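anyone seen this seq b4? input:
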Amino acid sequence: MNETEWLDYFETINNRKPSEEEIQQAKANGEFVASEPVAENSQPQVQVSGPVTGQGTPVVAPKKGLSKKVKIIIASVIGAVVLLALSFGGYAYIHLQGGKISEGTYQIETYRYYDKDKKKMIDGMESYEKSKLKDGDFVKVKGNQLKFYNYTLAGAVNLVDFTDYDTEKAFRLDNWSRTLTPTMSLADYTKVVEKAVDNRYKVDEYTTKSDIDDSKKVYIKDYKKSLKETVHYKVNGDKIIVLIYDKKGKLSEEKVFKRLTKEEEKKLDYEYERDVRADKKLFHS
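predicted toks r here
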């Protein structure tokens, strides 16, 4: 340790500068090595090829190391950075896990929508009950995709939407932002739904080509509108809460879906596929 390092060390430990007597005493005790000044040579040095010995060899002072105070500060900064990184990593992991939806089938439990006339959210399930119908909508989650199925339980004949089973219209899950984004562009959906409508309806004495074209326009218009909406979701145990906001950012729909057991899922799949077959038979016969 040289004299400068010893002075830094003394000030760090005692929080004061040492007296001249303390410096001399430390020097006498060998606690530091005094740096001796190198004498200047008035004559230019001549480089020789052989080894140089004797007193003419210059003495190189040892490199000055970091003081204890500086080392403490550096260690504190590094520790804070590491702690911050670990904290953010833990938060990110928890946040991502909180937005993860387990694969399976979830059926609607509650439904509310914004009534523009009443200017408030209305219980949509009551509207079904008044019409002696039951909302049987459900969603299926597989990987990072979620697909909605419209399913109205009407007793003898249940109603399905052919655009659900005849197109690949779905949503992509984003665990971080808790949003659902459509997987199909408007152009792609237009091609698919036009083909689906043509397969479903045929020109006959009851249906004109104009009717079919109008039907296509309705589906395309609805999908275009949905692309301007923002769909968020929350996970609460075995439930998914879907929140739909219009283009102005106002909540327009709120749907709560509850996860079905394997037995319930199997029963629903059987009944839905049965009703899909009946729907196809009705329009393709």
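Helices lie at 3-14, 20-28, 68-98, 124-130, 162-165, 186-200, 209-227, 262-284. Residues 8 and 70 are 10 Å apart (CA to CA). kinda curious what u guys think
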